[in-house]
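Ticket reopened. Same input as before:
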Amino acid sequence: MSVTIAPIAVAERRPRPTLRERIQHFVPKLVLAPSFLLVLIFVYGFNLWTVFLSFTNSRAFTSFTLIGLANYEKLWNWTFETDPPSSWYTAIVNIGIFGGLYIVFCLALGLTLAILLDQKIRGEGILRPIYLYPLALSFIVTGTAWKLFLDPGIGLEKAVHDWGWTSFKFDWVVNPRMMIYCVAIAGVWQTSGFVMAMFLAGLRGVDGEILKAAQIDGASAYATYRRIVIPIMRPVFLSAIIVLAHMAIKSYDLVLSVTGKNPGGAAELPSTFMYSYTFTRNQMGVGSTSAVIMLMTIAAIMIPYLYSELREKRQ
Amino acid sequence: MSAADLITSSPRRPTSGQSVITRIVIYGLLLFFAIIYLVPLIVMVMTSLKPLDEVTGGNMFALPKSLTFAPWIRAWGEASIGVSDTAGIRGYFMNSIKMVVPAVVVSTLLGALNGYVLTKWRFPGHRLVFGMMLFACFIPFQSVIIPMAVILGLLGQIGNQLIDATGFSFGFGNPTVNLVLCHVVYGLGFTTLFFRNYYEAFPTELIKAAMIDGAGFFQIFRRVLLPNSTPIIIVTVIYQFTNIWNDFLFGSTFAAGDQSPMTVALNNLVNTSTGVVEYNVNMAAAIIAAAPTLFVYVVAGRYFVRGLMAGAVKG
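Engineering reply: fixed in the latest deploy. New output:
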């Protein structure tokens, strides 16, 4: 380039990219490549690996002997093994109870608190952080706190007895049949503030003019929320339900800490089932099959949602 | 206006129609829920300040009669945790810090670079790359944990051979290094999401102007974007810090005994089956485990909420 004479440079309308420019062109991709490669291997590669393991007879160690759908058949049969209940049956029933209560109560509490907070409340800046702080805690801390709080020997039951109501009984946290409800209570306590924040953002995004118009038309506060505000917030409901559903499926530490390491598998969830079959019962094939089922369930929830969210953004 | 800003914006609801009784009911309900959210934390703190006989004999809602800090001292430096030799949770607290700091720094830096490439240096297929990284945020860790265990086992073997050959493992097989790897890899999706959405709104004209002035890829990043990224850096650091500090699944799977992070040690302490259950010590330990994330929440609550909302309402 050092010998470039002016007329030639003019004749070349589109000069060939210099080395510097060509390097510049590759740098962004080179910067992104390591991260993308890590995700490709550690997320997608590992998921495929787990899918592969679910078709093998892996026990304490990974094995390459394919056994077809035998693990899936095993889990399918266990799904209906009720007497005595199989661990997988318990896990399915419990995720239904826990997930259902968790989602419904988080939504109900979150919406109620958001609507109440949205009434020109003095001291909102103090109340809001109080509903939200449990989110900063780990599930282990939350579980430890609730385990003590609900312990019949020293917690709520004892306190109510001290206050004079001696027939009061609340021993769910040590009762294997009721443990899962305590997990749901602790979970709702931890997450409902988050749902409140989502709804509050939704409410604050509702156009004030619409509400004024409704008020002028003589609509009651209840009717305004019922017929106008809540329908407008349908997308927030969808987001909240999806986030909660995926959190419910992933719940793991909360069960262990509330129940005290899940005694007798009474509070089994698919997440704890996977862990105990893989790492303590040495049935890695079955464990990875349950992991695949968890992954498929979450994929079925998240992929359509993410797809629609990304599409909306494009417009 | 982002969702998080909406929460802190003031309500515009018409309140003229509300009677005094309605206002009282609203405030009453809000206070009632605030108490419910606070009670577990208050009980934890009070329990941790009581001698054990007052915990087991007294009412959990009663103020401590004889205030003592002994449980805190025991929890921090003396209590025996599981079968490990390390007394108290002090060492585990440090383990968590050693794991959290590098994991947060690396994942945030990579997320910033990825977000920069995915918004300002787009290439064909950038949307697919982002979508794949985004879905990685939501996979259940159960579906990657077996392959991860295999790979970390291999790294451990390499480490042993390196020790035989050179007397130094170079970090191979070190539990802290392993956990940092896990958290960086599985945190990348979120950090990339945060920065991508933030840089999406960053004026591309400024980038173009810098390019015309001859600035290269990294120069633009360092001189133009980073100085304007403080809010999103705070959000990402807080989000990653909270998530990694509170992690239990990876910690309990890939780090055993003295190398465990704080959450695992707390769970072991609380669920020790030998001897008398020292509820007061357990609660002191739980508060210590929760202190760093709670502190961050109190100091930077706004950013904390913003991270949560960004992690939930995608796009």
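The CA atoms of residues 182 and 191 of chain B lie 14 Å apart. Chain B touches chain A through 104 residues (CB under 8 Å). Please confirm and we'll close it.
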